[in-house]
């Protein structure tokens, strides 16, 4: 478990030159809980603060005071994207509140097309009658929740490229001071956020609370006018189960159609989602590419998948989130007494350390457990691979294949029901393919790399290439010069 220190130190060591110390940061009466980084910044996570360093110079850029309510449990979750930083705030700041956020209006995962069509016609008629009476029932409103300390969990998203200096208090910022979004992420007041995670493109945000029964997925649509005009759509509530579980790891597939959530009991839950929301069916998930939000039938019939708006405790910008259950649970085996297989939490209980990551499928076909994907599989078939690393050092590749759910073809009386791809629920098959044992070396390797190391060689080649292109930064491309390079390589004048 994490020890409670009154004094913490973060040291930056060069991998070249004998492990030379580059920078050293000392924090009095603060424990370092986590360190995250991207090409722009390095974020040192403390109990009540976030320290942002420049990724190129390691100089302090600015400090964010979070006031995270769960910091006594030695956690302060953040999500760092390519340019956005999301963190849990202490309370709601009404002048920053965005449109939308969490909604308590859950929709079943699959609804009949006919029922949806009738419902949309009824809503259109209701809106027409409401217009005649001078009232608009579908008008999107902004409900301002309580701004006290007992308000539900709040998420703030900042632009890390916005020019700041010194210490930043969110309550003192204006909506145009680089604040992209500020919204409620959960509905229960006595809970706190335990995990935040962006997808690869950075516009989808995952949020988990201390209950760990439902996980919320949001789509962030920023606005140039500031956080109060940002639309936060609650796309999904991912249902894990009735028991309490603390999330320790989250991973999105590259196309944002699958989300893997690992809890401290060693189980990885796999959920199907869509980057634009809506039902997850055979049409959306059984092919290798991301399909359009609306099918040809919906487009030709003029049916729009729009939310009804109104209702609910918290308004979410006109959409109703879908409740999606876990399609697969991959359980890591816990061996009592085994070294490195588990960690100790703050309350003294053991939990299994698990990390999961979506990646391309390996090409080795000489594995007996390769039972999902054959040599003659369809080229347009969706196939995924997830790598799960256990605390004992075992890395296992699992093959994932979306299939038609077995609950689709049986009616209430036991007869066969024919459904279109619009209504057919998706299922998932998984099978372990290969396991690697990642054993640590019996000796402590020095924190340096030799000059012939491939990482150092690639660094030198990249540095020489950047200098030949105009001397841009080796950490970030030159903002003035990248456009000319794109035109040079991709554009040819007409002949």
From TrEMBL:
Pfam families: BCAS3_WD40. Gene3D superfamilies: YVTN repeat-like/Quinoprotein amine dehydrogenase (2.130.10.10). One of its GO terms (biological process) is response to starvation. Residues 129-150 have a biased composition (Polar residues). Residues 13-307 form the BCAS3 WD40 domain. Residues 129-152 are annotated as: Disordered. One of its GO terms (cellular component) is cytoplasm. This is BCAS3 WD40 domain-containing protein. The lineage of its organism: Eukaryota, Metazoa, Porifera, Demospongiae, Heteroscleromorpha.
């Amino acid at each position: 478990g994490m020890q409670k220190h009154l004094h913490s130190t973060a040291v930056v060591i060069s991998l070249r030159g004998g492990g030379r110390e580059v920078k050293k940061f000392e924090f009095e009466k603060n424990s370092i809980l986590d360190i995250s980084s991207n090409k722009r910044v390095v974020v040192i996570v403390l109990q009540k603060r976030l320290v942002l360093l420049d990724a190129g110079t390691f100089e302090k850029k600015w400090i964010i005071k979070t006031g995270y309510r769960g910091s006594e449990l030695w956690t302060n979750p953040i999500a760092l994207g390519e340019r956005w930083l999301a963190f849990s705030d202490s309370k709601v700041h009404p002048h920053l509140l965005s449109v939308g956020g969490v909604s308590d209006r859950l929709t079943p995962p699959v609804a009949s097309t006919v029922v949806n069509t009738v419902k949309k016609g009824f809503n259109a008629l209701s809106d027409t009658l409401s217009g005649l009476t001078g009232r608009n029932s579908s008008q999107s409103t902004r409900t301002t929740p309580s701004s006290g300390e007992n308000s539900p969990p709040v998420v703030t998203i900042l632009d890390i490229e916005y020019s700041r200096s010194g210490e930043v208090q969110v309550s003192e910022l204006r909506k145009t001071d680089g604040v992209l979004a500020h919204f409620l992420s959960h509905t229960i007041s006595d809970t706190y956020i335990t995990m935040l995670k962006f997808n690869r493109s950075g516009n989808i945000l995952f949020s988990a609370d201390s209950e760990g029964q439902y996980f919320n997925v949001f789509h962030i649509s920023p606005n140039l006018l500031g956080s109060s005009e940002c639309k936060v759509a609650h796309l999904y509530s991912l249902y894990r189960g009735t028991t309490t579980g603390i999330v320790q790891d989250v991973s999105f597939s590259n196309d944002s159609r699958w989300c893997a959530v690992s809890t401290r009991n060693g189980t990885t839950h796999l959920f199907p989602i869509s980057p634009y929301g809506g039902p997850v069916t055979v049409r959306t998930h059984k092919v290798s590419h991301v399909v359009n939000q609306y099918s040809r039938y919906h487009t030709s019939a003029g049916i729009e998948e729009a939310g009804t708006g109104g209702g609910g405790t918290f308004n979410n910008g006109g959409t109703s989130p879908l409740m999606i259950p876990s399609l697969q649970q991959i359980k890591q085996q816990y061996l009592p007494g085994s070294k490195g297989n588990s960690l100790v939490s703050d309350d003294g209980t053991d939990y299994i350390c698990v990390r999961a990551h979506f990646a391309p499928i390996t090409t080795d076909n000489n594995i007996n457990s390769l039972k999902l994907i054959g040599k003659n599989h369809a080229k347009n078939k969706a196939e995924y691979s997830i790598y799960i690393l256990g605390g004992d050092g075992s890395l296992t590749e699992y093959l994932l294949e979306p299939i038609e759910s077995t609950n689709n073809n049986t009616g209430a009386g036991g007869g066969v029901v024919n459904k279109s791809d619009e209504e057919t629920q998706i299922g998932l098959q998984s099978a372990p393919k290969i396991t690697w044992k990642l054993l640590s070396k019996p000796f402590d390797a020095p924190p340096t790399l030799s000059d012939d190391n491939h990482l150092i060689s690639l660094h030198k080649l990249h540095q020489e290439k950047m200098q030949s292109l105009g001397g841009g930064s080796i950490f970030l491309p030159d903002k003035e010069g990248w456009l000319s390079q794109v035109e040079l390589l991709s554009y040819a004048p007409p002949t």
